[in-house]
Write a structure and sequence with these properties.
By secondary structure, the chain is an alpha+beta fold. The chain contains nine helices and four strands. Keywords: Cell outer membrane, Coiled coil, Membrane, Signal, Transmembrane, Transmembrane beta strand, Transport.
């Protein structure tokens, strides 16, 4: 009996431990705004593509710089043969050697401008990565707030359905009391059906918004995600002039500036290649071992070469013209990128001012619509009003509530867009 009691006790304790440990693991932790953005930055394919492009540019720069460094080589070889002149043939012999050679380019203008091109390409790739990160963060943050807005609309639609059901019950009571016509019940039922349809559409919009959030976070579309309502992004104390000035910090503008630097280096390289090419190189070799031995174990030299194409069919001139046109194109794109960034920054700033003003107006409108509905319901209950008046007031309240929700989330969206437009971190940072 004691043994069975002990076994049952152990079994109960074991089940309790398993249940306790499984509970927190199975519970889904809501995703925060920062977590959604972090997931997008680490998993979104566009960021990975930009990272690989930067790695390629950095490797190309390392390759270009390597040519200006000292080059060391170990050379070992052996040969077997004879020598002869016009009258005699020498004996056959074997010669072997092991030597270390070193060389260094002292002057090469062509390599100098190739390095500048590679450096500009790295700067451009870095700006492209920053742009990809900013775009991924903005998309994820906006998708996050889209989910919250859709959920807020669902809550409003659910309240509307509950109010419509209460209105049906009230109309039926009024009919039973003999102070309302049967048509009031039919109108209330029609309004309830319309509210239920709106609720279904709102719930579908939540699912659509979650799909966009999963995609922006780089998750599988079948992954389960829930969100936690965060504090609104801090509103930037920016004037119109500050917003315009901040547009120059956009990654797109920085990349365009780097592209101009690359085009300038390309033009300089084309001009150098069109003229005499001067290269100065020094080299040295040391015989570590040689058989048969010689007295000169160390050999060094310094040399200069000048290369000039006497006729290339106009190739060099065409290359210079193409490089000059490429520079003009890059400069035009830089001006366009700055102008576009300034327009975006100003538009985002105006949108933020508009949204903040609409928040106060829509809240006042919602409060007034609430009072109007309360008055209409009171008159209807007292038999002094019509159900059409009640339904109209309820529709006005729904419209005011949805406008208030839209305005509040428009503020958050405008803050995100403004931070993006002036090159600030979309979430976090100053």
């Amino acid at each position: 009996m004691n043994v069975w009691t002990l076994r049952v006790f152990i079994l109960v304790i074991s089940l309790a431990v398993v249940a306790t440990s499984a509970g927190p693991a199975d519970a889904q932790v809501p995703v925060t705004l920062q977590a959604a953005v972090s997931s997008a930055l680490s998993q979104h394919p566009s960021v990975a593509v930009a990272q690989q492009a930067l790695a390629v540019a950095q490797a190309n720069l390392a390759e270009a710089r390597a040519g200006r460094n000292i080059q060391l080589a170990l050379v070992a070889g052996t040969s077997y043969g004879n020598s002869s002149d016009t009258t005699t043939v020498g004996p056959t012999a074997t010669s072997s050697s092991v030597k270390v050679s070193a060389s260094l380019e002292l002057l090469n203008l062509q390599a100098r401008y190739q390095i500048r091109q590679a450096e500009a390409a790295v700067s451009s790739a870095e700006a492209s990565l920053a742009q990809a990160r900013q775009s991924a963060a903005l998309t994820a943050a906006q998708a996050y707030f889209s989910v919250l807005r859709a959920q807020a609309v669902v809550a409003t639609r659910q309240a509307a359905v509950a109010q419509a059901e209460a209105q049906v019950r009230q109309a039926e009571a009024q009919v039973r009391a003999g102070i309302a016509a049967r048509a009031d019940v039919l109108q209330a039922q029609a309004a309830r059906a319309a509210a239920q349809v709106d609720l279904i559409a709102a719930r579908n919009q939540v699912e659509t918004s979650f799909t966009g959030l999963r995609a922006s976070m780089g998750l599988r579309l079948t992954d389960s995600v829930s969100v936690a309502a965060p504090a609104a992004p801090p509103v930037l104390a920016q004037s119109r002039e500050q917003a315009l000035a901040g547009a120059s910090d956009r990654p797109e503008v920085v990349r365009a500036h780097a592209d101009v630097a690359a085009a300038q280096a390309g033009l300089a390289l084309a001009e150098v290649q069109a003229g005499p090419l001067l290269a100065v190189t020094t080299s040295s070799a040391y015989d570590v071992w040689k058989d048969p031995p010689t007295t000169n174990a160390v050999v060094w030299s310094i040399g200069a070469t000048v290369t000039y194409s006497l006729f290339d069919g106009g190739l060099a001139r065409a290359a210079v013209a193409a490089a000059r046109a490429n520079l003009a194109n890059a400069q035009a794109k830089e001006a366009l990128a700055l102008q576009t960034a300034q327009v975006d920054a100003l538009t985002a700033w105006v949108s933020l001012q508009d949204a903040m003003a609409r928040v106060d107006a829509t809240r006042a409108s919602e409060a007034a619509a609430t009072e109007a509905l309360r008055a209409a319901e009171g008159r209807y209950q007292a038999g002094a009003g019509t159900i059409v008046e009640v339904l109209t007031a309820r529709t006005a309240l729904q419209s005011a509530s949805l406008s208030r929700i839209q305005a509040e989330f428009d503020v958050q969206s405008a803050v995100l867009q403004l931070r993006y437009s002036i090159g600030r971190p979309v979430v976090g940072g100053n």
